[in-house]
Amino acid sequence: MERFFLALETASFKIYTSISQLPANWDKIAVSNAFLQTSYLKVLEESAPVNMQCFYIGIFENSELIGVALAQYLNLNRLESFGERDNCLKTVIRNFVFKNFASHALFLGNNMITGQNGYVFNKEIDFKHISELLLQCADAISLYFRKQKTNIHIVSFKDFYQHCAVELKKHNFSNVYEFNTQPNMIFELDPNWKTSNDYVASFSKKYRDQFKRAQKKCEEIEVRELRFDEIVSNEERIYDLYHHVAKNAPFNTFFLSKNHFSMFKKQLQDQFVLCGYFLNGKLVGFHTLLINGNVLETYFLGYDNHIQKEKMLYLNMLYNMTKYGIENQFKKIIFGRTALEIKSSIGAQPVMMSGFIYHSNSFINKYINRIFKRLEPTLEWQQRHPFKD
């Protein structure tokens, strides 16, 4: 795509539709975030959800690359299901609205993960110019689709920590609707924990008993990290387990492609971990992790629902991911924004994040706050406090 100039006299941005077009020093700029490095972007390019198209944004000062960003277009008309768990009138109405008034959605950021992973710079950029950049990028990509006779309905700027959201609202985002959904569950690991025994010892009796009960339930389960060839040979089963969990989520905007996990392992190798859970030699569950510097990012998982209930499989997955984080001395684990209560029971804390959204129809956008509040499912949950005082 053509180059666009920002309000800054010396700044511009260029939008790319293919990894092969990216500047040679892209990864030097993206070094601090694995979700913006070309190894991960290749995973998206070669195994993105069928209803997704990715755009890669280079930000330049004069001719020097100083920042990189990601945008994703989603065609919700190509989605098999928005989510099957909540079968009620509100869900039916929500799905009708999304199909007819929000089926073409543009996300500035990464809609597949939780966290502030949309852009990174190699120098300090003030929020005034970041707000200008994000809005101008959205306009440029929307124009790209209009030329192809597709109108973008919804534009969303995804996942900002609260201090960033506050700063953005002081500038060009002041009139863009800010929303908060479920919090991101983040586990700041105690640097004094060297083994999982140290972690378990810090529990109060109630949660130490919970840990022991979960471990006992899972005694027959063999857990092991899968090599690339094992992921390939189990690909159908892995996808079936993932798909079962995904379609029963309250709301979806995409489903992964069947080769997503093998492509991930091929591209990121030791940076990507897929652990399989086997019962009598049969794969009954899996979880995935991405190593992102000193942060451990949880990714997608899947399980056989009958086995999960009987063996407390999901809770054991959370314990195992925590064990991996402790034993490999990560600073924190990003657990994402689902199953909040059970994640808090293993030590994760809720961190509120904001998004911004607007509708291309000015009349609908005028009432976006009321519409969004009515369509977004409310969630009541009780935070658990597992550690000794």
Features:
7-stranded mixed β-sheet, Aminopeptidase, 389 residues, alpha+beta, single chain, 2 domains, 15 helices, 16 strands
- Helical amount among residues, as a percent range? 25-40%
Q: pLDDT average, as an integer?
A: 91
Number of separate strands = 16
* Anisotropy-based shape: globular
Counting DSSP H or I runs of 4 or more residues, the number of helices is: 15
Largest sheet geometry = 9 strands, mixed
CATH class of the largest domain: Alpha Beta
Task: Domain count, please report it.
Answer: 2
Strand content: 25-35%
Q: Which residues form runs of ≥5 with pLDDT under 50?
A: 82-86
By CATH, the architecture of the largest domain is named 3-Layer(aba) Sandwich
Gyration radius from CA atoms, angstroms: 21 Å
Which fold name fills CATH's third level, the topology of the largest domain? Aminopeptidase
Structure class: alpha+beta
In angstroms, what separates the terminal alpha carbons? 56 Å
How does this structure look, described?
This protein has 389 residues and is an alpha+beta fold. It has 2 domains: 3-182 and 353-375, Aminopeptidase; 185-351, Aminopeptidase (3-Layer(aba) Sandwich). It is 37% helix and 26% strand. The protein contains 15 helices and 16 strands. The chain has helices at residues 26-29, 38-47, 89-101, 127-146, 162-169, 196-201, 205-217, 228-233, 235-247, 260-268, 305-311, 313-327, 340-344, 362-366, 368-375; strands at residues 3-5, 11-16, 52-61, 64-75, 104-108, 119-121, 154-161, 177-179, 184-188, 222-225, 272-279, 282-292, 295-303, 332-336, 349-351, 353-359. Strands 1, 2, 3, 4, 5, 6, 7, 8 and 16 form a 9-stranded mixed beta sheet that branches. Strands 10-11-12-13-14-9-15 form a 7-stranded mixed beta sheet, with helices on both faces. Strand 1 (3-5) and strand 2 (11-16) form a beta hairpin. Helix 2 (38-47) runs antiparallel to helix 10 and helix 7 (205-217) packs across helix 12. The longest helix is centred in the middle third of the chain and has 20 residues, at 127-146. It is globular, with a radius of gyration of 21 Å. Mean pLDDT is 91; it is low at 82-86.
